[in-house]
Amino acid sequence: MPEMPEVQGLAQFLAGKLMPDDGAPPARVRDVQLGSFAVLKTAGVPLSALSGMAFTEVGRRGKFLILSLEDLHLVLHLARAGWLRWSDSMPDTLLRPGKSPIALRLRCTEPAGYGFDLTEAGTRKSAAVYLVREVSEVPGMSRLGPEALTVDQDQFIAMLQGHRSQVKGILRDQSFIAGIGNAYSDEILHAARLSPFALASTLDDEQLIRLHTAMHSVLEAAIAAAAGKPAKELKDSKRREMKVHGRAGEPCPVCGDTVREVSFADSALQYCPTCQTGGKQLADRRTSKFLK
After folding, report:
1. Number of domains in the chain
2. Which of 55, 72, 221, 250 has its CA 20 to 30 A from that of 263?
3. Last residue of some domain: 111, 137, 163?
């Protein structure tokens, strides 16, 4: 699932393409086609309204990618398996809804041929597209918590003290802190040397400071690694940088212990027993108990 660093990388890449800083005019939309009618979550403004409009800004909020054009905003949420595929030469053929993994296609007139496809793999389709006049109209946007890298140490400690949930779930809660998902929460907890099942209310100030420091260092490193990369390279770059996430069965790069996994119905987490749980292996179920 694309998380804040990858969405930030996409925003930077698209800004460079759609609003070049070499004096060239910003790109203008030729047309937008739907390959999946279900991906469009708004009906107040038709996609055809984008035709001829110039891009004015590309930004991000949490995991939302925001493409601003004159007086409209095209907001994308890539969900679990969505991605953007850029092309300097888009095909002229019309999309056939339901016949490919392409959910949406945007083509530009200036520069001619530029554009991108929003693709979504798998059978569970949850990517979302919103065309709105105000970004605040996007459902879920108003519920987002502060951006992870804007939260200072004192604010972070105050937010977590007394919180009775597990830290893994707290970090992934977009209404608590925006932008962190399954992968980076694993990486942050590994860097902080904390169990994913630890309750926030049990952490002392020193552990909370470690967690805050890890959150900033992991995300800042990921953003730096994504900067300047084309869209097609961002996912592979993310995988290469992971220390524990997606690496079950491999040696921990810090201590050499075997990275372990806890599987749930629709996801899994990875952690290092030596670095994070005092050498004990977590039970593979939704509980904070250890295996006997």
Report:
1. 2
2. 221
3. 137
